[in-house]
Amino acid sequence: MERIVYLDNNATTQVSPEVVEAMLPYFGERYGNPSSMHSFGGNVRRAVEEAREKVAGLINADPQEIVFTSCGTESDNHAIHGVLAASMGRTDLVTSKVEHPAILNTCQALAKKGLKVSEVGVTSEGALNWDDLDAALTDKTALTTIMWANNETGIVFPIAKIAEKVKETGAVFHTDAVQVAGKIKIDVKKTPIDLLSISGHKLHAPKGVGVLYVRKGTRIRPYLTGGHQEAGRRAGTENVPYIIGMGKACEMMTKHMQDHNVKISALRDRLESELVRICPDAKVNGLGQERLVNTANVSFYYVEGESILLLLDEHGICASSGSACSSGSLEPSHVLRAMGIPFTGIHGSIRFSFSHYNTDADVDFVIEKLPPIIKRLREISPFGK
Amino acid sequence: MWDYTDKVKDHFLNPRNVGEIENADGAGEVGSMACGDALRLTFKLDPATKRIQDARFKTFGCGSAIASASALTELLKGKTIDEALQVSNKDIAEFLGGLPEQKMHCSVMGREALEAAVENFRSGGRVKHTIEGRVICRCFGVSEKEIERVVRENNLTTVEQVTHYTKAGGGCKGCIPDIETILQRIASERQVRTGMTNLQKIRKIEEVIETVIRPALKNDGGDVELVDVSGNEVTIMLRSACANCPASKLTVRDFIQKELRERVLPELTVIEQK
């Protein structure tokens, strides 16, 4: 297999070898059901609870506030549907225009059914529009859900301030923290966040496991009903090996996140500044806002994203784009649209997202291969000089 | 992610005829940066033979868009203008060994650029290509004529296919009812041309009821019985669980009538006999 330069970590991350090792016994001899009476199951129960403590440790929550789910999308759905079902008198939703489809499409489907849904916009720099938020919050707002950091641009919202504002109006506050867990230190004892979504495969745990943090006292109904697992909050036999993996990944992040960030931000900053220096008509999106240290979203004007990605792929370089053609639908990035970035910039946008497994050699390689690709596509393009 | 054929990959990685002919005989430009697809085609004729001597392209677009334009220029070389106008979007896709469904609009764009360039040539270099007729899809600037042409030439039957071939309906989706109207009209034209006899029609209705409708209703404990067919009016009687079901009107309209219209004739109406 040719060398892969993997720079698409906001899409998914590799599972750490230590995480795989921690999971394996639970595919092997330790296959008991944690709810069983016998000690064969009880031992597995103990391991699940230890994993729960490790996850709680990552965000400074109490272990009883951690609900294991199958993924970030399920956590998001649980938050929205669960709060609406338990809400007395309040019926409206507030969210933002730049959310992940798991939140946005879920809210829009509810809007089609007649619920009032307000989508708060962002400025051209990508900051949350405070006036919009002010106007949207009313005493009929049941739930406000606003992401902590954006998966496409890496822009980080001031979530503590947002949470405080929302709580003043009496609504429940949920944040999709899928891109933040493992990248920014989360302390739920320091902010009034009620609900928070985490996705395993964004922090080197496998795909297929997630978490919903539920602050004690939050009124919320279960989303998946059936048995009494997860203290009656989420039915279904626990996905034991993956939960163990999630616990291990969180434990590793708690220990090493700071060190990872130092390394990652140096790599990202160098790639960004070099690309903008070498390629004419290239612009970083979200520069000037607080951003995740691992994300670089760069627009290359006059050329199209899918063709850039295909040519990068020829060299084993993995990235993603906000262009319409690479989206699977015909729509370009709704996040960049919400920022008012012109189509010329959206279709040519490329996102590079790092993990601590990336190296300086990766950055050197992209700096070597990408500018000629852009030059070549500009020669083929009818636009620009 | 896209399953591109080797030929598409080849024409993307090694595109033929990139560029722009100066003092071209014909020049056509379609698409825009807003759409995410744009193609500028230029060609030059051999003054003696009047055949296309050289054709060049410039494309802003994805792998399929670049490959389609490259393929188009290869197909044009050596042809007269009349021969060139015979090149359809299907020809472009076939030349490339096929394109993913969702990328067929790239081949359609090639065809449009060709028409624009020929129009430009025939008008002595004056006419710049404009959208003819009623615009159906505002998001992507697709006209009724274009949708009809693509539906007929490629035998399309669903809205999804129309979106894949023209992008219409892929944005705000507000034009989807209009697209459905066009599809129904062309489908019934086909029907009229193939000329189903009354007997054939009734037999087809029976067949659809037996093989599609009854099994689905039976799954939910219901059933239906065909009572009569008079002209385009189909009379049925709901049975079993369907008979007393509060949603029976929906079943009749949104399932039974819909299926018969799609599979037999768009003009059929279904009436429930109580």
Report on the architecture of this protein.
The complex is a heterodimer of chains A (385) and B (274). With 385 residues, chain A is α/β, with parallel strands linked by helices. Helices cover 39% and strands 14% of the residues of chain A. In chain A, strand 5 (141-145), helix 6 and strand 6 (172-176) form a beta-alpha-beta unit. In chain A, helix 7 (240-278) packs across helix 11 (360-380). Chain B is of the alpha+beta class. Helices cover 49% and strands 18% of the residues of chain B. Chain B has eleven helices and eight strands. In chain B, the strands form three sheets. In chain B, strands 1-2-3 form a three-stranded antiparallel sheet. The longest helix of chain B is centred in the last third of the chain and has 22 residues, at 198-219. Chain B starts with 5 loop residues before the first helix and ends with a strand. The interface between A and B is medium-sized, with 26 and 30 residues.
Q: What is the succession of H and E elements of chain A?
A: EHHEHEHEHEHEEEHEEHEEHHEH
Largest sheet of chain B: 3 strands, antiparallel
* Unreliable residue runs of chain B: none
Mean pLDDT of chain B: 90
Strand order, main sheet of chain B: write it out.
1-2-3
Reported for the largest beta sheet of chain A, the result is:
7 strands, mixed
How far apart the termini of chain A lie comes to 39 Å
Q: Any idea what the shape of chain A is?
A: globular
Number of DSSP-assigned strands of chain B: 8
Number of helices of chain A: 11
User: For this entry, what is the oligomeric state of its chains?
Assistant: heterodimer
